[in-house]
Design a protein that fits this description.
- The complex is a heterodimer of chains A (329) and B (314).
- Chain A has 13 helices and twelve strands.
- Chain A has 329 residues and is α/β, with parallel strands linked by helices.
- In chain A, helix 5 crosses helix 7.
- Chain A is globular, with a radius of gyration of 21 Å.
- Chain A starts with a strand and ends with a helix.
- Chain B folds into two domains: 2-83, no CATH class; 88-313, MetI-like (MetI-like fold).
- Chain B has helices spanning 2-28, 34-39, 45-55, 61-73, 87-122, 127-141, 144-158, 174-208, 211-218, 223-260, 266-275, 279-307.
- Classes of the chains: A alpha/beta (329), B mainly alpha (314).
- The interface between A and B is medium-sized, with 27 and 21 residues.
- The complex binds adenosine-5'-triphosphate and magnesium ion.
Amino acid sequence: MTASSLVSIEDLTVQFRTDRGWTTAIEGVSFDVAEGDCVGVVGESGSGKSVTALSMLRLHARGTSRFARGSVRYGGQDLLRAPERTLRQIRGRDIAMVFQDPMSSLNPVLTICDQISETLCLHQGVSRAAARQRAIELLDLVRIPDASRRVDEYPHRLSGGMRQRVMIAIAIACRPRLLIADEPTTALDVTIQAQILELLRDLRAELGMAVMLISHDLGVIAEFARRVIVMYAGRIVEDAPVDVLFRAPRHPYTEGLMASMPALEGGAGRLYAIPGRIPDADEPIAGCRFGPRCAHVEAICQAAAPELVAIGATHRVRCTPRTRTSGTS
Amino acid sequence: MIRLTLLKLLQAVPVILIVSVLAFLLMSLLPGDPAVLIAGDQATPEAIEQVRRNLGLDRPFLEQLGIWFLHLLQGQFGSSLMLNQTVLSAMAERLPVTLSLAGLSIAITLPIGIFAGSVAAYYRQSWVDSLVMGVALLGVSIPGFWIAILSVIVFSVILGWLPSSGYVPIDQGAIEWLRSMILPAIMLSLFQIGFLARMTRSAMLDVLSQDFIRTARSKGLSEWVTVGKHAFRNALILVITTMGILVSTAIGGSVVIEQVFALPGIGRLVVQGILARDYPLVQGVMLIYGFAFVAINLAVDLLYTVADPRVRYD
Ligand SMILES: Nc1ncnc2c1ncn2[C@@H]1O[C@H](COP(=O)(O)OP(=O)(O)OP(=O)(O)O)[C@@H](O)[C@H]1O
Ligand SMILES: [Mg+2]
């Protein structure tokens, strides 16, 4: 954990209870989020992005999940083991979240005003009247037109894009130090997507908060993040600054993701897809979990599970052949 | 909102018409000649003919129906045969008893049923859940009259804590009124508590798994606010839709309970009326019950639109 890091995740391993016992959804996830940083997390569906994000605020359903190992350090505390009270003070005030589906993430029977004020009254102890005024300002800030009228409406009167703006307004209400956005644009159409991303970018600059943006769309990440974490089957497979990652990806999975990205320049349009599918959480695979889908698989890959190895000050890769050659050269 | 109320009122009109016609048909569908039944065994043919004319039974069917509606519009329900009073005043006398019973029982049912169901849902698949659901199942399956009689034996006869029967009007002292009504009301609410707890549990389970509950937690809200405000407000909408059934079973159940506890309410009146073949009285009670059900469902519909902003018209 470096001096400037805001949240530091170490060896995070989360398991869920299923009919067949405890299955491991993510394993050995370690990364830091620095103050004011902008981290992108990318990976196919089921790679463990949401599980990682929800763990940071301990938002998994109780009883059916457990943290087998690891820690999430924030402000000198381990959030995985902190008392519920402490955690509640951090949620929404220091670390806030925006979820994927704005249709279902807002309470349908409470007004927008109610849902924004709640956080303000709770964490900042402001009066209801003041909170209402703040709510209107926040709606302005997330560029909702006619905010003073919209504030008293119920979510069902708003479009998907507007609702996601409301979700963002709720999240930034207490000026959190970290905003975790779990696929905030996936449920929206393309033009709205671009607007929401632009809004997030502006808010980050304006409020100076760190943002962790989760997406399965490398294009979104490329535009937004400074640093990219690539996840595969519940593990981090590569972690690098965005320009390094796009210029010289080291993990075959990252290469595959890039090849399957539609070219913006409008190429021939034949899209590459990584063969095979992501393995289930409890599927037994010898060695590297990407091995069965990897075009460059070697005998050594199946011998032992690869470690996440630093190949530079800011670059980490989980691939035995690739880290071996770079390590010796 | 006003438009919606008017619309719902309009929709209630045909139902009320049908109920009125059914009550009317009671008279004509009777086996045998109602005039003979009413006039009694020893009546002379002249007396029977007199009764027939008084009741208007000698007129054509449609004319009888027309007269029936005309009387209803004027608020005339006719006179009771067994009691020496009009049907309307007989019912007005007994209505407070039934309303007390049903009202008190609903007042007991709502908080307990909703609380028990919510707790069961929150602690789903734990021993708390099993306990609540087990008791609720007992509540809906035990026959009302049996547990009511048992309770009289235990609380009135053996322990002597409460009067075993009889009704004390509320204007003769609220405490005495409560003492006379509490046991019947609890017995009446057993089924409803079980029913409501089960409905609330499934509504709550549904709501607690929704995304906005996770949003509420992510804001730092306590479990109490998350469940008591965010989840409960949503579950309430589903619970309100079952309120109609709840109140209807309270009224239906009151017939049995009034009988067991000898409470002089509408339910007991109608049982006596049926046994004495007091047809005008039975018709009157039928109408009152019919109107009550229509009014209850109307109220539930309106309550529903207030509780759920998604169906509110403004
Ligand atoms: N509550 C849960 N119970 C059991 N398994 C779960 C639970 N939540 C997640 N998982 C498992 O954890 C793995 C990772 O899921 P996660 O939701 O983090 O994926 P994701 O990367 O966010 O995918 P998506 O892009 O679809 O959101 C999946 O294999 C999933 O089956
Ligand atoms: Mg996800």
